[in-house]
Amino acid sequence: MKRAAPQPHPQGRGAADASRLPLHASRIILIGGALLGIVAASGTANAVDPLKTIRAFCQADGRGARIDPLSWLAIADLVTWPLEPAWDHLYLIRGFELSTPEVHDGEVAVAVQYTVTADVRSNVVTPTNRVDTRIVRLVRGEDGVWRIRAPAPPPYLFESEVDDEALAGLLGPSGSSYLSNTAFVWTMLRAAGWTLPYADTNALAASSDFTTERSAEVGDVAVYYDGEQPYHVGIVESDNTVVSATLNGGIRRTSFGAFAGEIKYRRPIATVHATPTPEPKPTPRRKTKKRRDR
Asked: Which residues are CB-neighbours of 289 under 8 A, at least 6 positions away?
């Protein structure tokens, strides 16, 4: 089966009718065993003003709403994507600043400057001191509400609210109750016999253990991009579906266009395939010794 690269919906729609597969435990525990200070007030009330939408989103994101499925509703009405990737990386921040909104072709663009203090990936916390600037774009729905347009940015959490070492451990591919998108892909590839080391989204997109293909075949890895940055991965299941790990929906079977952005297909090369296990041979029958009459 081959499938040409699809044209995904720019807002990442298409997951609403997706069937649900068995859920995997995917709750990340923050300091004290619970999220601190998540504001459960109506997001819609803030979302009529684009700047208030961005501020409410960044505050909820900073307090962990996008790494805890029970708190994701705090941002659900502030964004256009129905499914949140099960992130395999995140950033710790001291704070953020918002620029003056700019209007272009009916959309509103706001520059968000994050003061980043650490990069957190699988079992690794890397301290840093830099400013990340992301341009967040908002679109106005028919209900008059401004929402942040897909693709989803990675989570930016307040450093004062989390246990960084615990988060890094939970992002690991094994031994954790949390299953990230790349941990799921790695598990599926290994189950299919591929002897591949674990790789997070960035590493998987550039790994020499894969080739990049223009069309998809069953078993390929679908890598979703936000511009030039890969942000989500899944396994091609059929002509029309991809299976991937999400935060708020567990393991989901969706259309290719359920996540926004360009898709590139990565295929494991034959040299990393495990030696097939030989089929068991039937146990030879033992010959019955004839008993001699005495």
From this structure: none
Q: What local confidence, expressed as pLDDT, does residue 270 receive?
A: 82
Is the pTM value of this prediction over 0.85?
no
Rounded alpha-carbon distances, angstroms, from residue 108 to 38, 52, 99, 262: 26, 12, 11, 22
Residue 192 neighbours by CB under 8 Å, 6+ apart: 219
**CA dist., res. 61 & res. 92, Å (int):** 11
Q: CA 166, CA 5: separation in Å to the nearest integer?
A: 38
Where are the chain's structural domains? 3-21+172-272, 31-170
Residue 216 to residue 219: CA distance in whole angstroms: 8
CATH number of 31-170: 3.10.450
What is the third-level CATH fold of 3-21+172-272?
endopeptidase fold (from Nostoc punctiforme) (3.90.1720)
- Averages of pLDDT over each 10 residues, the chain, 294 residues: 46 41 36 34 60 97 95 96 98 98 94 98 97 97 95 98 95 90 97 94 96 96 97 97 97 98 95 54 47 48
